[in-house]
Every structure is written in structure tokens, then in C-alpha cells.
Amino acid sequence: MTGLTPTPGIHHVTCIAGDPQRNLDFWVETLGLRLVKRSVNQDDPSTYHFFFADAEGTPGTSMTFFPWEDLSQGKIGSDQVARTAFRVPDGSLDYWEDRFDRHDVEYDDRLERFGESVLPFRDPDGLPVELVEVEIPAEDTTVPWTEFVPEEAAIRGFHSVTLWLADPEPTEELLETMGFEETGTEQAQGDAPGDERTRFAATGPVGRYVDILPTIEGGRPGHGTVHHVAFQTPTDADQEAMRSAVQSAGLRPTAQIDRHWFRSVYFREFGGVLFELATNGPGYDSDESLEELGGRLVLPGEFEHRRDAIESDLPDVTVPRAEAAKAEDSAEGT
Question: 150: Cβ–Cβ under 8 A, 6 or more apart, which residues?
């Protein structure tokens, strides 16, 4: 489509968690991602919104969570984002299996998928996640955070998301409209219900893949499920062109919404999965320095005057620090 810049890939993935402290402990201390933003759900400021990413919050690296404690456990099924996968450096899965053993993380046997080694596991809320070994190029855009995990094993942004869909064809056509290209199919493995996995690739180096599996298996939202997946439309012009293309395809995207660190457009694709188009700016460092990312509760402008009331309603949490973790390990060893 004339004037349409293909999406480079995934911008962020937002999920539903339960206990906020448990969520922080796992994604920061166990997986080694940096808390780059501690805020609130802008549609429900009584709930935290945590953003975990690489050292600088690079687009294509942030996994975010709404810890809605009062929701029930969800179930993965059709018309959902069923799996979220992250890139890790070649040869690092042995490290991750050892780490998961030490931290009592539930994980499955490795898989080979499209020629890559995949380690499936679940977070404490039962969210299905995967680590995929890839060769990280010297000019890679991501910046590893190494407070808990060494650089040679650190997570380097998204690899892919897997969609389970009852009727894949309309969504596959939509992905092509957005700039993805079908790159191949193969037999599904593991707990995937479909008999064939189809892969689509975007143009960028990070979060470039979307896999689709056909299934009619029933699911429900709740703890351990994905709320939405966002795709990069780097500039406002890119986003408006993509919004028009989505609308022309027969979908109903929202107007642009200011999310403070990026600007967003939302729509449900043909199967009902919530998609977002997100700009790459202003970025997570627009209201905190890189050194201080995630260090305090940041409230977008319209909520700042309610800070006292909002803070009093939120549970107290402590962000894991490597120094404290080492001191605790040392004390346990004496």
C-alpha cells in the first residue's frame, strides 16, 4: 500500500499477573530484565503497570504487566496470544536450565523450531514463555542488562509471539497488510494444539516473528494470559498510515491515545486478539534518566495530582537489587 511503512516487529507485550511482588521478583531477579518503568494502568490507576525490558527500554524488548490480584486464573485457548518468546544468545540455554533449576522454575524439554533451539517455561502465574537461541549480531540494537544475568546469557528482546486462532486466514492476510511476510510452515510440537505452524516475519531485527497455529480450544482471560500485543509504528506518520490500512481491511481501530512513553492505536484483529500500534517515542527515558529508570512510581500528568490517593491504594513492593540478593544468599550459606 502506497505510503505504508512495514512494521519492524513487536513493540511490547502486555500480560495479566496476580501478586505484584511475585511478578517483580521473577521478571527482574530470575529472568534478569530491568524494571524500566513503574507506573499504573492508565485505564485503572488502582493497579500497577510494570514494564520490564533491556537496559535502556529499547523498542522491541518490553514485557509489561497489569497485576490484577482479584482476577481468577486464565486459560490459554483460541484467539489469544498463546506464547511469547525472547531471544537469548547462542549456547546460553544450558545456563538457563541450570538457573531455572536453582530458582524452581517450571520448564519443559527443549524443542527445535524452524532450525532454532527453544526452551519453553512458565512464569509464577502460569504464563507460557519461551527462550530461543539466536546469533546476536555485533550491531544489535538491544542493550543487555547484567545486574542478575551475565551478558553472554542475557535476554535480548522479543523473538516472536504465537497466536492460536480458530480461523487463521483473515489474520494472516492482515499480517501481510502490516508488512509481515510468510516464511514457512512446519509441524507443531509440544503442547501446541494445531497440526501446522505458519511463521510470518517483519522487517526489523528484534521481535520480528509472528507464528500462527489453528485451534478451536477454548480459553479465558485471567492470570497467566496475554492482554495485548503491540507492534512498532515508529513515527506518527507510520502509525496513521498503518491505522488507515487496518481500517481499510475492515477493522475498527481507535483514534490515537497518548500513553506518555509512546502513542497508541488499538483494534481487535479478526479473531479477537487485541492488537496495538505503538510509536517508538518519546521513550521510557522521557521522564526519568537512564540511570534511574524504574526507581520510582511515575504517574502520567493527568494522574499526578492524585498521587497521594493512588499511592495509598497500591500495595507496597520492593524492586529486587543484586546487592540484596547476594547478601541474602551469603546469609543463607552461613
Answer: 95
Q: What is the pLDDT of residues 128-152, one digit of tens each?
A: 999 999 999 999 999 999 999 999 9
Report how far residue 88's alpha carbon sits from residue 181's, in angstroms, rounded to the nearest whole number.
Answer: 23
Residue 325 has pLDDT above 60, yes or no: yes
Stronger pLDDT, 334 or 209, i.e. the higher one? 209
Q: Calculate helix-pair angle for 236-248, 168-177, nearest 10 degrees.
A: 140
Least Cα distance to 137 among 167, 157, 108, 117 occurs for 157
321: three-class secondary structure by DSSP: coil
Mean pLDDT, rounded, of the chain = 95
Query: Distance between the two ends of the chain, CA-based, in angstroms?
Result: 65
Residue with the three cell numbers 507510520: 238
CA distance 305 to 325: 35
Q: Which domains does the chain have, with CATH numbers?
A: 10-333 (3.10.180.10)
Q: What is the pTM of this model?
A: 0.96
Sheet with 225-232, side-by-side order of all strands: 34-41, 44-53, 62-67, 10-17, 225-232, 274-278, 263-268, 257-258
State what percent of residues in the chain have pLDDT above 90.
92
Distance of CA 34 to the CA centre of its chain: 13
